[in-house]
Amino acid sequence: MDKSLHRSLGLTDEEANVINEILGRQANPLELAMYSVMWSEHCSYKSSRLHLKRLPTEAPWVLVGPGENAGVVDVGDEIAVAIRIESHNHPSAIEPYQGAATGVGGILRDIFTMGARPIALMDPLRFGPLDDPRSQWIAEGVVSGVSGYGNAVGVPTVGGETVFDSTYKENPLVNVLCLGILPTDRLVLGQASGIGNLAVLLGNSTGRDGIGGVSVLASAGFSEEDDSAKRPSVQVGDPYEEKRLIEACLALLDEKLVIGIQDLGGAGLTCATSETASRGGVGMDVDISAIPCRELGMEPYEIMTSESQERMLAIVEPKNLKRVLEISNQWEVQASVIGKVTNGDSLRILSEVEGEVLADIPASSLHDDAPLYDRPKKKPELHQGLSGDELNPPVNVTNDLLSLLCDPSWVYKQYDHQLFLNTVVGPGDDATVLRLKHPVNGKETGRGLALTTDGNHRWCLVDPKIGTAMIVAEAVLNLACVGARPLAVVNCLNFGNPEHPEVMWQLSEAIDGMSDACVSFGVPVIGGNVSLYNESEGNNIAPTPVIGMLGLIDDLENRPPGAQMAEGDRLLLIGPETSGLGGSLWAANHGAIYGELPELDLEMHLKVAETIRTLVGTKLIRGVHDLSEGGLGVALAEMAAKSSVGVSIARTPNHQALFGEGPSRAVVAVDPESLTDVLTLCEERGVPVVRLGLATGNQFKIKDMMDVSLSDLKAAFINKLPNTFGVGTSNQ
Amino acid sequence: MDVAEAVSSLGASSKLLWHGDENIHGVDSIVIPGGFAHGDYLRPGAIARFSPVMKAVTQFALEGGPVVGICNGFQVLTEAGLLPGALQKNRGLKFVCEPATLRVETTESILTNKAAAGGNLHIPINHFEGNYTCNKETLKELQEENRIVLRYVNNPNGSIDDIAGVCNNKRNVVGLMPHPERACNELLGSTDGQVLFQSLLAA
Predict the structure, then answer these.
(1) C-beta separation of A281 from A228 below 8 A
(2) B1 interaction partners in chain A (CB closer than 8 Å)
């Protein structure tokens, strides 16, 4: 057997042997190509599946859990919410604009595949250091790509994260989350059934872009020589095609003309045909000559593994075909019958109808028989590096605090974040708030959806288990700050090379931490994505699990307060006392990335979150902001910068108290008249409160520690990104 | 759809006109909304101006019917020659979505007849090509004929003479880059867009 072929496709010798056993014969090159994409790390989750099973996935309101294109929850009023998060890390490192743009396109299709109209995108982005020119190029290209595709396709980008850190210098992380709403009875699944039913390919023609993207790009690390050779594996996006495809597909679903529908993403047609067939327990014959191609002479393996964008596969009863073609025509979407559902389990690729059989594979074997690895895990050696608590106190507290500030509005101003008139709280606050309207009749429910994405690689490098639990906790608190209670989590697990035992240990620990926190908070994980091989030259990124958390606001009568304060307000720190600088941004900026994390008390955390949610609901507070990276100092500085009011803080014992990132804490600004009520409420709930001082004047003052003018503080906050990127040039 | 929601919140009704339709179905006024028609490929509005429905819209406008173009709709109206000038890429060469403060420069237009002259309106912008430009003669004409309907208080995109919106010489066709439909609900942060739609409904 020629070993070079399967190896060049990324299959191991053992995997190739298993394929031959399944088929009972030697696989031909087309079949090998199809297995190689479906058994890639990206599609098969072969290194992570075993561990993902430990996550809690059930709750009474969960309609669809992990394993489908998106998770779906029931939010009442006959409305369901579909949500998913994905990564487009590797393509974005090679070709930032298209990598990010097609990431947006892909996640949108995952949502409308479920019958949901996509109404919001979020983009958690992580780049190399701000002073690195290549990282700047990547950041500009990625932001332009999200903006270029998201704005044009007509789905608002309502939030996300922007992080710059040397761990992402060679491996930027481009995660994208999409949320859609659907009438509960429009929910559809990606499955085929009914022998003789037709497989209809909708949308773009198939081209040579993105050939084997998942196996070539996302299932291996980067090294010095081969990166430019990977560029043809990056897909190219067409947002206008996608816009028409969304409308056409939702129209087909409204008229109940399709039995199942599936988007073409990673692994292209191979994935869509085999997934629909195997989910429905049927087979499928695909006529390769019926697939519209962009160029002549495309080989069957290219057609079957191309990741050309903006394509969907619908399973249609023959009697409905005419109407399906009419609707497609109205939206100027190309539609072609490319196959039919067959008895049995065989996915057959034919040269033409009744023609030569080019491939004949048990459809389910592409999924169910995919390898499952319990890769070796090993806790890393005890870190020899500095811990945050061993650092000397800052020489200049003011400079240190100002250097931690970064206003991300340079990023989100490039995104349309208001389309559909839902955005009550947009990007830049603790969590985004959207009005909840019925997706078909537009009727208002008086309720709101809240969304946040959170990740923190510094915490997770120190301790992946507690660090990940802290991320989940932070998301719960972010939602509480806008008055929402958590409903569901989706996760995007960005890690290094799973063949390194230390990385597998990090992944396993992170999943345990996420599981502990989600169980404790009663929030199910309804979907996710694993991105491995974020490594370059053998160096892995710091473990970066990112979560998206969906929340519900039961009564959205007013806008949540946000990180505001007014002259004369009393400032309170709500939450437990914590200590330690391990994993903090301040310590990392001083070269100390190890140590110990502050304690996370899950029970106390819930009490704090409940208290904050109540305070937001009762309108007893003027403003609220949760403490996260940069600790108390950054939280106060952001409140001051956003509301243009100074502060006078009395009690801050030391720099640990200012920069430590202990969880379960938030600052609230309270009108003096409401102070007693707020203090009483906290006492009743058993939640500690510390009086910090006053919102006042034009100086940012912390007694015996710092005193800086509000204008200098605002300049440091606002100008960081514009000073780096300037007005720049368009990447288009 | 967003414009329809904003208009219906003011108690009026609306219907959506299909771009391929050659009929405007007897409506009282027309809003060409924002939103990347034809993906903004080639140039914003350059393809949409050839939509079959634009023939009927042009006829309606020439007969004095009230027509408003918002954002991409403004771009379509300039491409179609119903309004002078053109919209080029923002000075900063980036897409910009942010709140803007506008000054009402004239109440003699179908979009501002109920607004207060000289008053400020808080209405968001959301565009890449919002940088209004025209030749000197046209600018002079717009100024002298009082056809600059709205100006930015802090110019966000480099528009000539801070122009945010203009009208034709009959004052029945208005184009503006800001999105008044995004400022018609207290929950969304501003209700300053309402007075513009109320003006249109009264026109």
Answers:
(1) no
(2) 420
Distance CA A514, CA A518 (A): 6
Q: For an interface test with A, which of B1, B51, B95, B131 has the most A Cβ atoms less than 10 Å from its Cβ?
A: B95
Domain that holds residue B114: 2-202
- HSE-up of A224 (CA within 13 Å, CB side)? 0
Please count the other Cβ atoms lying within 10 Å of the Cβ belonging to residue A410: 21
H/E run at residue A369: none
pLDDT digits (tens, 9 = 90+) for B4-35: 888 888 888 888 888 888 888 888 999 999 88
Instruction: Assign residue A723 a region (left: φ > 0; alpha: ψ between -120 and 50; beta: otherwise).
Output: alpha
Task: Please state, in angstroms and rounded to a whole number, the distance separating the CA atoms of residues A63 and A76.
Answer: 12
Unique residue bearing structure tokens 């009564």:
A555
Q: Which helix (H) or strand (E) holds A165?
A: none
Give me the half-sphere count of Cα atoms (radius 13 Å) on the Cβ side of residue A644: 0
The SS3 of residue B17 is coil
Over residues A297-345, the pLDDT tens digits come to: 899 999 999 989 999 999 999 999 999 999 999 999 999 999 999 999 9
- Residue A42 annotated to the active site: yes
Asked if pLDDT for residue A727 goes beyond 60, the answer is no
Q: What tokens appear for B91 in the block?
A: 């000075």
Interface of A with B in 402-431 (CB under 8 A): 409, 412-421, 423-424
Q: How many distinct structural domains can be found in chain B?
A: 1
Known active-site residue B184: no
**How large is the C-alpha radius of gyration of chain B?**
15
In single-letter form, the type of residue at position A543 comes to P
| Residues of chain B positioned with their CB less than 8 A from the CB of A429 | none
Closest residue in A to B92 (Cα) is A727
Q: Note whether A397 and A522 are within 8 A (CB).
A: no
Cβ pairs bridging A and B (under 8 Å):
79
CA–CA dist A693, A19 (Å, integer):
68
Q: Is A321 exposed, middle or buried (0-12, 13-18, 19+ CB in 10 A)?
A: middle
A243 touches chain B (CB under 8 A): yes
Amino acid at A35: Y
Rounded (10°) angle between helices A133-153 and A239-254: 40
CA distance A46 to A214: 13
The answer to whether the CB atoms of A413 and B185 lie below 8 A apart is: no
DSSP classification of residue A447: E
What DSSP line would sit under B43-97, residue for residue? STTTTGGGSHHHHHHHHHHHTT--EEEETHHHHHHHHTTSSSSEEE--TTSS-EE
Return d(Cα A487, Cα A485) in angstroms, integer.
7
Identified catalytic residue from A88, A417, A457, A625: A88
Residue B196: give its domain's CATH number. 3.40.50.880
Contact between residue A553 and residue A108 where contact means Cβ atoms under 8 Å apart? no
Which contacts (CB < 8 Å, 24+ apart) does range A682-686 have?
A682/A574, A682/A611, A685/A607, A685/A610, A685/A611, A685/A614, A686/A607
Residue B19: active-site member = no
CA distance A383 to chain B (A): 44
Rounded to whole angstroms, the Cα distance separating B200 from B12 reads: 11
Q: At residue A711, what is the residue type?
A: S
CB contact under 8 A, B181 and A151: no
Residues 6+ apart with CB under 8 A from A22: A361, A362, A365, A369
- Best CA proximity match to A533, nearest among A87, A216, A219: A219
Q: How confident is the model at residue A232 (pLDDT cuts 50, 70, 90)?
A: low
pLDDT in tens, A42-99: 889 999 999 999 999 999 999 999 988 899 999 999 999 999 999 999 999 999 999 9
